[in-house]
Write a structure and sequence with these properties.
Elements (H helix, E strand, L loop, with lengths): L8 E2 L2 E2 H6 L7 E2 L2 E2 L1 E2 L10 H13 L10 H21 L7 E4 L2 H16 L5 E5 L8 H10 L2 E5 L9 H7 L4 E7 L11 H10 L3 E5 L11 H4 L3 E5 L10 E5 L1 H5 L11 E4 L4 E3 L13 H17 L1 H20 L4 E4 L8 E6 L4 H10 L2 E2 L1 E3 L4 H6 L5 E5 L6 H18 L1
Parallel strand pairs: 5-17, 7-8, 7-9, 9-10, 10-11
Antiparallel strand pairs: 1-2, 3-4, 6-12, 11-12, 13-14, 15-16, 16-19, 18-19
Helix pairs in contact: 2-10, 3-10, 4-5, 11-14, 12-14
Length: 416
């Protein structure tokens, strides 16, 4: 079933050349060439990122912000340089609006605790959707339990598309927070977050956009979207694990209380009173993941060099090819059929549980994700326990998709 494909390009750079930048992609798994289609869980890292992290520890390892010696000042400059790169990557208005966190999960928890706890009370509403990751459900459940606010959920249709008429009906003067995923990690659905933000603002609500899955695949402009908060993770944009970003509008952040206390988030401390640091450091207590922050900046350099619009166009072509090939397979059903989609294709098979699919694909060297993908309410909506999920990145090829299809055929042969 393997096909010959013409040379593939992301913008002006061939995918063949791009793949050489990612050393892990050249290895074999179970005696087969690795076909890595688990990018929704984490992306692979280019040598530039790996080397940047290594260089930090080899050449200028030091704590930042508080040191007057040369290593500390150099590390501080490199770390803050990354903050500037993040600002440009999402087109934030100022570097003070960029807060380093551990990942999307911590970013959402920060907003829930720091903004939600101070601005929610009984009678208020928080709106999320059926397709949210657990990280954008549980923090809001917790804060609603603590404040007496009500959590409301936007339903989706059978194609995995938000029912915007229902969202409009939910919105009211009681709505204080809307927290919505930009691109679903399970369905691939891309939500109209700009329009949804405008609708929420008309009711006086603030909006958080979960960009964990959109930042790796789409050109993101937070000023164009208009959202009040935007969160994404470093490890999903070819950067290290343990580092992520919360963007917040400066005027809102200035009025929020710190999320954690400790070093670097203070201006002065006495036993009687503590005054807090300026933005963004007010929300960055303790020694951060310095190497991770520097590595994230280098990862963004890599994505920018390829062009996010080029990445989006190429990946869309890959996904359309994958969906076309999978659609023709007997006993297989794709979950999610939105007109606007990206990143992933999820499917179930009549003959095999998703975990069995994933295990057999692994024997063929094909790495996918199986399970509920931290979206159990979404699984309940489709009355399924789990899906098999193939997720692409710009270093994948149509030949990778061919290998996926051959491996899925193998599942059909084994299970009948």
């Amino acid at each position: 079933m393997s096909q010959q494909h013409i040379k593939e390009y992301v913008g002006d750079k061939s995918v063949e050349e791009i793949r050489k930048d990612f050393p892990i992609l050249s290895q074999k798994v179970n005696g087969k060439p690795l076909v890595y289609l688990d990018n929704g869980a984490t992306t692979q890292k280019p040598l530039t990122v790996i080397n940047a992290i290594s260089d930090y520890y080899k050449e200028y390892n030091s704590n930042i912000h508080r040191g007057v010696h040369a290593l500390s000042q150099f590390a501080t400059d490199k770390y803050e340089e990354s903050r500037g790169k993040v600002r440009a990557f999402i087109n934030a208005g100022a570097e003070e609006e960029i807060i380093f966190v551990r990942g999307t999960t911590e970013a959402i928890n920060l907003v829930a605790e720091s903004y939600g706890r101070s601005n929610l009370s009984s009678g208020d509403d928080v709106i999320i959707s059926t397709m949210e990751h657990h990280s954008n459900i549980v923090p809001w459940q917790m804060i609603c339990d603590n404040t007496g606010a009500t959590l409301k959920v936007i339903p989706i249709d059978d194609n995995g598309v938000l029912m915007l008429d229902e969202y409009e009906r939910m919105l009211s003067s009681n709505t204080k927070i809307v927290s919505i995923v930009h691109q679903s990690n399970t369905l691939g659905t891309i939500n109209p977050v700009k329009m949804m933000t405008e609708m929420a603002h008309d009711k006086g609500a603030v909006v958080l956009v979960d960009g964990a899955q959109s930042a790796p695949h789409l050109a993101v402009d937070v000023q164009e979207i208009g959202c009040d908060f935007f969160a994404f993770s470093g490890h999903k944009v070819c950067g290290p694990t343990g580092v992520g970003i919360l963007y917040g509008k400066k005027d809102i952040l200035e009025n929020m209380k710190p999320y954690q206390g400790g070093g670097d988030m203070i201006r002065s401390v006495s036993f009687e009173h503590t005054s807090y640091n300026d933005l963004p450091y007010k929300f960055e207590a303790g020694t951060p993941n310095i190497a991770g922050g520097i590595g994230l900046g280098v990862a963004l350099d890599y994505l920018v060099s390829l062009g996010m619009s080029n990445i989006a166009a190429y990946e869309k072509e890959l996904l359309l090819y994958a969906r076309q090939q999978l659609t023709g397979m007997s006993g297989l059903r794709i979950i999610g059929n939105a007109e606007q989609f990206g990143g992933v294709v999820s499917f179930v098979m009549e003959s095999a549980h998703p975990h069995d699919i994933g295990t057999i694909l692994d024997t063929e060297g094909v790495a996918i994700r199986t399970g509920h993908h931290c979206t159990q309410p979404l699984m309940d909506r489709f009355d399924i326990p789990a899906t098999a999920r193939a997720s692409v990145s710009f270093y994948n090829t149509k030949s990778d998709i061919d290998a996926l299809i051959v491996a899925v055929d193998r599942v059909s042969e084994l299970f009948g």
